[in-house]
TrEMBL record, chain A:
Matching InterPro entries: AAA+_ATPase, ABC_transporter-like_ATP-bd, ABC_transporter-like_CS, P-loop_NTPase
CDD domains listed in its UniProt record: ABC_Org_Solvent_Resistant
This protein's UniProt keywords: ATP-binding, Cell membrane, Membrane, Nucleotide-binding, Transport
Organism per entry: Pseudothauera lacus
Protein name according to UniProt: ABC transporter ATP-binding protein
SMART domains found in the cross-reference section: AAA (SM00382)
Keyword flag Nucleotide-binding: yes
Database matches in PANTHER family: INTERMEMBRANE PHOSPHOLIPID TRANSPORT SYSTEM ATP-BINDING PROTEIN MLAF, PROTEIN TRIGALACTOSYLDIACYLGLYCEROL 3, CHLOROPLASTIC
Lineage: Bacteria, Pseudomonadati, Pseudomonadota, Betaproteobacteria, Rhodocyclales
Transmembrane segments: none
Entries under SUPFAM superfamilies matching the protein: P-loop containing nucleoside triphosphate hydrolases (SSF52540)
Pfam families: ABC_tran (PF00005)
Cited Gene3D superfamilies: P-loop containing nucleotide triphosphate hydrolases
UniProtKB/TrEMBL annotation, chain B:
An example Gene Ontology molecular-function term: phospholipid transporter activity
Protein name (record): Intermembrane phospholipid transport system permease protein MlaE
Primary localization: membrane
Keyword Cell cycle found: no
Domain of life: Bacteria
Lipid bilayer topology: Multi-pass membrane protein
Quaternary structure and partners: The complex is composed of two ATP-binding proteins (MlaF), two transmembrane proteins (MlaE), two cytoplasmic solute-binding proteins (MlaB) and six periplasmic solute-binding proteins (MlaD).
One cellular component term from this protein's GO annotations in UniProt: ATP-binding cassette (ABC) transporter complex
Family recorded in the similarity comment: Belongs to the MlaE permease family.
Biological classification of the source: Bacteria, Pseudomonadati, Pseudomonadota, Betaproteobacteria, Rhodocyclales
Organism: Pseudothauera lacus
Function: Part of the ABC transporter complex MlaFEDB, which is involved in a phospholipid transport pathway that maintains lipid asymmetry in the outer membrane by retrograde trafficking of phospholipids from the outer membrane to the inner membrane. Probably responsible for the translocation of the substrate across the membrane.
From TrEMBL, chain C:
Name listed for the protein in its UniProt record: Outer membrane lipid asymmetry maintenance protein MlaD
Species of the source: Pseudothauera lacus
Record keywords: Membrane, Transmembrane, Transmembrane helix
Transmembrane segments: 6-26
Domain Mce/MlaD residue range list: 39-116
InterPro entries hit by this protein: ABC_MlaD, Mce/MlaD, MlaD_Phospholipid_Transporter
A GO MF label: phospholipid binding
Length: 272, 264, 151
């Protein structure tokens, strides 16, 4: 696959990142071509949210390059970074809706902050976005009155309010029933194509995502351990991929956070 | 021996910690001022915060002001009449309120009513990643969330202190003149003769402005700086109330010694 | 809560806050420090000012006509020089006597001005030449006891 670098909207090269002493990412190479929907998968706590934060410029890589739309994030001023972020949308893992505003105001927030559109137009746009996630009737509710899945859908509507060029979804399917899950999955794909945007999706739902994405990365232990198109993934006999696709407890992806063995911990406790 | 070293180490790390936080707070103050433009250009953001900091504190301020004034009236009369100068009750009540009790007590009430609420709100926004989400939407949380709350507090505090003082004087009047029977004319005229606008009233107002800045800054800083957990927020709220109280009392001492040094 | 209700409340709050400030400045306090534009400054040397303080009132016939602005020690004459500002509406003759008096037995001390009969009036920066020092209670008591002893 030989593609010119400028075809990539997002391009991570040998990115490393550590929270304090603990290194989370140890050399990630990942790229998203314009117009693609890319899924990132990996065990819980392996650093997927961290990866999205790096792409959004909220965290700085300790080594390597993060390039978004041709700009190396490390060299950007705050103003330039904010300029770039206006063209990004992010769905946070826990929604992160503004609790002091109604659903309507939440979705209207980016529009009001960044545009001078007249109120009627803002209203029309917001209702369109809410309609897309099936919550037009909930515009007057406060975030406290929403279920987890509804909150995530509102957050999704907010993330796409400004028609961004890059949309990042942190676990868009968590807490959704199978029906909404299918609808949201299709929505993500359609939005991406309609807006001419590119999307990065962190998810655990391998079967749903294989239906809609163009490319999949598997992250484990701070590295990309497998990658490929959905067809390649389905046909893959890579142990990681196999473990994921078939949801096996035993395999290369560790279920436990790094620790001494349970027996050793318990004995140590008694001995102390 | 190791106990002494451990103690010294704790003192040392505490000190280093405090200096760090002080530095952070100063830098944060600079940032808040730098990003204040929006709070004035989009006035409704600040007006909303004046509502939460000021209007919602009205009741407690008015009621406490009235009671503090009534107690001053009772105690002041009790003491003054021993020297046969109960006519000076107005002076005593007005001077103690305008110079000290008004700004200080209103500041303490403001810190525990509005300051803690500001810390809690910002802290919870941090816990639920609302601040990060806002930052991700290219909206600076300091400009959009912190600065309006800061200015809302700064505007509310002097008004609350003035209301507290006025209410207290009315309370003193109620007890002294209406219930005890001190002469109404003497109460007000002696007060007017002894209380100077520039010297007493204005200095009290200046104090309340300084306290407003201090409490609002502490409140927004503790909220913004808290550890993003339920426990972290609750600890930040406690710290807001405690540090605000200490700051008010210390600043009051410093300001008093500048304002009223060696004069009447 | 709708924006109008919010604005209304905040407007109400600001208005009563301003009213409280107005109450404090008009009803509780007074603008004793006359505007410096319509005052003039006089000086008066005293042998002893007792407990006179800056900002103490200056009275004539019991009416406040000014305030003490500054008190300093003159090393050349070893006397205290009191500067005070007087309301420009009132003019005093050159031979006015300045006295340091006490309101009541233990009350605050103030400067009393007793006008003379000169046709020339005191102007900005002039000095009141005839002065009478404060009565120091300790001295008075001492004198009283001395006199008693002498009898
Ligand atoms: N603020 C932080 N400070 C220190 N360590 C952190 C911080 N945030 C995350 N971590 C650590 O970084 C690792 C990766 O976190 P991250 O949130 O990226 O995981 P994730 O892949 O999104 O997991 P999940 O699928 O459960 O959401 C975790 O092991 C976590 O312990
Ligand atoms: Mg995550």
């Amino acid at each position: 696959m030989t593609v010119a670098r400028q075809d990539f909207l997002v391009d991570l090269r040998a990115v490393r990142f550590a929270y304090g002493e603990r290194e989370i990412l140890r050399g990630i190479d990942l790229s998203v071509r314009r117009g693609q929907v890319v899924a990132i998968m990996g065990g819980s706590g392996c650093g997927k949210t961290t990866l999205l934060r790096l792409i959004g410029g909220q965290l700085r890589a300790s080594a390597g390059q993060v390039v978004v739309d041709g700009a190396d994030l490390a060299g950007l001023s705050r103003a330039a970074l904010y300029g770039l972020r206006r063209r990004m949308g992010m769905l946070f893992q826990f929604g992160a809706l503004f609790t002091d505003m109604s659903v309507f105001d939440n979705v209207a927030f980016p529009l009001r902050e960044h545009t001078d559109l007249p109120p009627e137009l803002v209203r029309a746009l917001v209702l369109m976005k809410l309609n897309a996630v099936g919550l037009r009737g909930a515009e007057a509710l406060s975030p406290a009155e929403l279920s987890g899945g509804m909150a995530r859908r509102v957050a999704l509507a907010r993330a796409i309010a400004l028609d961004p060029m890059l949309i990042m979804y942190d676990e868009p399917f968590a807490g959704l029933d199978p029906i909404s899950l299918g609808v949201i999955g299709q929505l993500i794909r359609r939005l991406n194509d309609a807006l001419g945007a590119s999307s990065i999706m962190v998810t655990h739902d391998i079967h749903e995502s294989l239906e809609i994405v163009d490319y999949v990365y598997f992250v484990s232990d701070g590295r990309i351990v497998a990658r490929g198109t959905p067809d390649e993934i389905r046909a893959s006999d890579d142990p990681f991929v196999h473990q994921f696709v078939h949801a096996e407890a035993d395999g290369p992806v560790p279920f436990h956070y790094p620790a001494p063995s349970l027996a050793a911990s318990l004995l140590g406790e008694v001995g102390a | 021996m190791s106990g002494v070293i451990g103690f010294l180490r704790r003192v040392g790390s505490r000190t280093v910690d405090m200096v760090w936080r002080l530095g952070f707070a100063t830098r944060f103050f600079g940032l808040v001022l730098l990003y204040s433009g929006q709070s004035f250009r989009r006035l409704h953001l600040t007006i909303r915060e004046i509502y939460f900091a000021g209007v919602l504190s009205l009741l407690i301020i008015l009621v406490s002001g009235l009671f503090v004034g009534m107690v001053l009236g009772l105690q002041g009369y009790e003491t003054l009449q021993r020297f046969g100068s109960s006519d000076a009750l107005g002076v005593l009540v007005a001077l103690s309120l305008t110079r000290e009790l008004g700004p200080v007590v209103a500041g303490l009430l403001f810190a525990s009513r509005a300051g803690s609420a500001i810390t809690a709100e910002i802290g919870l926004m941090k816990v639920t990643e609302q601040l990060k989400a806002m930052d991700m939407m290219a909206v600076s949380p300091i400009a959009r969330v912190v600065a309006p709350r800061f200015w809302g507090g700064v505007v509310s505090m002097p008004l609350l202190a003035a209301l507290f003082t006025a209410m207290g004087i009315l309370g003193g009047w109620l007890i002294g003149v209406v219930f005890i029977g001190v002469d109404d004319g003497a109460f007000w005229s002696q007060m007017q003769a002894a209380v100077d606008f520039r010297y007493d009233v204005m200095n009290g107002v200046i104090k309340s402005i300084v306290f407003g800045v201090a409490v609002s800054l502490i409140a927004v800083f503790e909220g913004y700086d808290c550890t993003p957990t339920a426990e972290g927020v609750s600890r930040a709220i406690t710290r807001t109330v405690v540090s605000s109280a200490l700051a008010i009392l210390a600043l009051d001492f410093v300001l008093t010694s500048f304002m009223f040094r060696g004069q009447s | 809560m709708s924006r109008t209700v919010l604005d209304l409340w905040v407007g109400f709050f600001v208005v009563i806050g301003a009213a409280a400030l107005l109450f404090l400045s008009l009803k509780v306090g007074s603008f004793s420090g006359f505007n410096s534009s319509n005052t003039y400054v006089l000086q008066a040397p005293f042998d002893n000012i007792g407990g006179l303080k800056v900002r103490a009132p200056v009275k004539s016939a019991g009416v406040v006509v000014g305030r003490v602005a500054e008190i300093r020690f003159d090393p050349a004459t070893y006397r205290a020089v009191v500067s005070f500002s007087v309301d420009a509406r009132y003019a005093f003759p050159r031979d006015t006597i300045a006295t340091i008096l006490t309101s009541g037995l233990l009350g605050e001390q103030y400067v009393g001005l007793e006008p003379g009969g000169d046709v020339d009036m005191l102007g900005e920066g002039d000095t009141v030449m005839i002065t009478q020092s404060a009565v120091v209670l300790e001295k008075l008591i001492g004198q009283f006891m001395f006199d008693r002893a002498a009898e």
